[in-house]
Amino acid sequence: MIHPLSPRILFAVSVFATADARNPDLQDLDDVVTPPPIDSPVEDIIFERVLCDLTGQIEGLTGAVFRYEVLERLKRAADRRDVTVIAFGFTDTELRLVLEGESENIRNVLRGVKVGTTRAAKKWKIRLASGPSQRTVLERSEVVDAVVWAHLGPVNAGAEGPLSNPWSSHRDMMCFRDASFFDASRLLEIVDPRVVHALAGGTTLPMGWPPVGGGIKDLSFLLRVAGGVLGVLPADRRCFRLFVHLALAQGWNTADLGPALALSHRRIRQLAVGEEPRLGHALHAVADWRLGLVP
């Protein structure tokens, strides 16, 4: 069956690169990204992995900075090639993707991500040799299962559930995050988020969701939540405005926030002016401990 947006087609893609002690130099990417035959079954997906040591003998894509860089790089490459990232999910060593776009454009996106990741790894004094991408063409009816597969990446790596980890697009799909590196609008056009949530093993969301949180939350926790909602690290100044609005909504005073951010009281008052469009996302995260699990 041809996808209704032909000639754009849907792919489930898993990308990986492995450290190769025998040949540490970057391989010829025109060779390593050659797709397999399109009749490969979904069950035969071969993940394309990045296996690197960022934290001292701990293997895999475990560093938050590294993961956020990969996602930002993927978004830039996809936007340039008119490719849509439908869903993503990390395991300890793998990045799972569901992409929509023309075949050649998808190939170039994967190539760009590999080249950029290999170059960025030099900052960590790591040599990467990219491996092949196994790409499987999907029927429209298979997209839901592919999204679930992507969102189960963190669960397969040990997360308690799809909402208990920030390293998939599940929180974005459920409207609990609005990160710069992912736009969930296309995903929500083609899947029912409740169905994906249930198939991924998510706990049933009760009536009146989200539940009301109790008590004033710790400022360090609120800062991590603000960063998690925006898809940045807590030290990133881009989350400071959301943090200020979230802290004030939780009962803190502006005088308490300056020391937490090493900012003047005047600057805190400036950040508190106006409405913060992502405050609702942050309040949802505070109300549920699963959404509070952020880097």
Walk me through this protein's architecture:
Helix 4 (about 145-150) crosses helix 8 (about 195-200). It is built from 13 helices and 7 strands. It is an alpha+beta fold and about 300 residues long. The chain has helices at about 30, 65-80, 105-120, 145-150, 155, 170-175, 185-190, 195-200, 220-230, 240-250, 255-260, 265-270, 280-285, and strands at about 10-15, 15-20, 50, 85-90, 95-100, 130, 135. The strands form 2 sheets. It has a 4-stranded antiparallel sheet with strand order 4-5-1-7, with helices on both faces.
Secondary structure: elements and pairs:
Blueprint: E1 9-15, E2 17-18, H1 29-32, E3 50-51, H2 64-80, E4 84-90, E5 95-101, H3 103-121, E6 129-130, E7 134-137, H4 143-151, H5 153-156, H6 170-173, H7 185-190, H8 193-199, H9 219-230, H10 240-249, H11 254-261, H12 265-272, H13 279-287
Parallel strand pairs: 2-3
Antiparallel strand pairs: 1-5, 1-7, 2-6, 4-5
